[in-house]
Every structure is written in C-alpha cells, then in structure tokens.
C-alpha cells in the first residue's frame, strides 16, 4: 500500500508540474525550458523518473526471475552498497562532468549491475536445485542475451565518446560495462557447464576443473 501511495503521489506531482508549465507557456519547447530552469520542478521530475525505474525493475524481476530467494535479496543489498561506494570514488576524478545526463547514466549502470548479480546467483543455484524447468532456461538465456547486448552497446558508446570528446566520465562507464560484459561471458560458461552436468546420468567430476579454467581465462 505504501509503494502505491508513492507512485500515485509522484504521478500527481509530475502531472501538476507539466500541466502548470504548459498552461503558462502554451508551447512544448518553452514549457520544457521553464521546467528545466525550476529546481522544484526538476526535483519532481527526478522523483518521477526514479519511480519509473523502480517499476521497470519490478517488471523485469517478475519476467526474468519470478520470486527472488532470500539469499539473492541479501546478496543484492550487500553488493549494491559496495558498488555505489566504489563507483562514486571512481567518478570523483571526473566530478566536473556531473550533470543530469551523468545521473541518468549512473542510474542505468546500477540498474543493470543488479540484474547481472541476480542472474549470476540464479545460475549458481542450478547446482543446488533438484529440478530445472524449461521456464528457468528461457528466463536465464533471454536475460543473458539482453544484458550482453546492452553491455556491448554501452561499451561501444563509451569508446566512441572517448575518441570524439577525449577522456571524460564515459571512460569510467566504458570500463564498468566491459567488466559486466566479461561477467556475462562467465555466467554463460557456468550455465553451459551446469546444464551439461544436469543432463548426465552420473555426476560430472571434472566440472570444477573446467570452471577454474574458465575463471582464469575470462
């Protein structure tokens, strides 16, 4: 009930801000300028954007994971605090680039990191789960493809921005997404090995060796 009130309140506030700006300016572009120059209006729009991100996250969680296990939630919270602190320290080098675009890119980065951690935990859970359904395979493979494509896109975008604009905060974003891309590759290897092990009649004793080699290479 509490989250529904937050969603409704943010929707009412953002609608009021947009309606008030359009009522006074009568046109789209002047209305946008009016909102961007008003700190209270921008704060309302930031809150609305954050609510949209949370709702999107809940939708993706429902589609790709269903119900999260208690261990997955605990790992997600622990990793989030560490990642926020680590990333903020890295971004202090480019603090002059702080802007609305930076906040948006930073939010997207943390959003995607969370799903990388969750899919890694879910694949590791394959070893301890007695039954793996076809829905599990569909969810994991689909999410890995989506995450891999997004990571590659953001790496390319950061590379292009660095070539054209020089060293900037995009350099840090590029390295972060490159790390996430290697993480996706490692999870794919784990998923393949776990799937092969599950389909065997007898336990695969050499799986740990292959996992070790994969970690060393990737």
UniProtKB/TrEMBL annotation:
<keyword id="KW-0862">Zinc</keyword>
<feature type="transmembrane region" description="Helical">
    <location>
        <begin position="102"/>
        <end position="119"/>
    </location>
</feature>
<dbReference type="GO" id="GO:0043161">
    <property type="term" value="P:proteasome-mediated ubiquitin-dependent protein catabolic process"/>
</dbReference>
<keyword id="KW-0812">Transmembrane</keyword>
<dbReference type="InterPro" id="IPR057992">
    <property type="entry name" value="TPR_SYVN1_N"/>
</dbReference>
<keyword id="KW-1133">Transmembrane helix</keyword>
<dbReference type="InterPro" id="IPR050731">
    <property type="entry name" value="HRD1_E3_ubiq-ligases"/>
</dbReference>
<feature type="transmembrane region" description="Helical">
    <location>
        <begin position="43"/>
        <end position="60"/>
    </location>
</feature>
<keyword id="KW-0479">Metal-binding</keyword>
<dbReference type="GO" id="GO:0008270">
    <property type="term" value="F:zinc ion binding"/>
</dbReference>
<dbReference type="Pfam" id="PF25563">
    <property type="entry name" value="TPR_SYVN1_N"/>
</dbReference>
<keyword id="KW-0808">Transferase</keyword>
<feature type="domain" description="E3 ubiquitin-protein ligase synoviolin-like TPR repeats">
    <location>
        <begin position="3"/>
        <end position="218"/>
    </location>
</feature>
<keyword id="KW-0863">Zinc-finger</keyword>
<comment type="pathway">
    <text>Protein modification; protein ubiquitination.</text>
</comment>
<dbReference type="GO" id="GO:0036503">
    <property type="term" value="P:ERAD pathway"/>
</dbReference>
<feature type="transmembrane region" description="Helical">
    <location>
        <begin position="131"/>
        <end position="150"/>
    </location>
</feature>
<feature type="transmembrane region" description="Helical">
    <location>
        <begin position="171"/>
        <end position="193"/>
    </location>
</feature>
<dbReference type="GO" id="GO:0012505">
    <property type="term" value="C:endomembrane system"/>
</dbReference>
<dbReference type="GO" id="GO:0061630">
    <property type="term" value="F:ubiquitin protein ligase activity"/>
</dbReference>
<protein>
    <submittedName>
        <fullName>EOG090X03TK</fullName>
    </submittedName>
</protein>
<keyword id="KW-0472">Membrane</keyword>
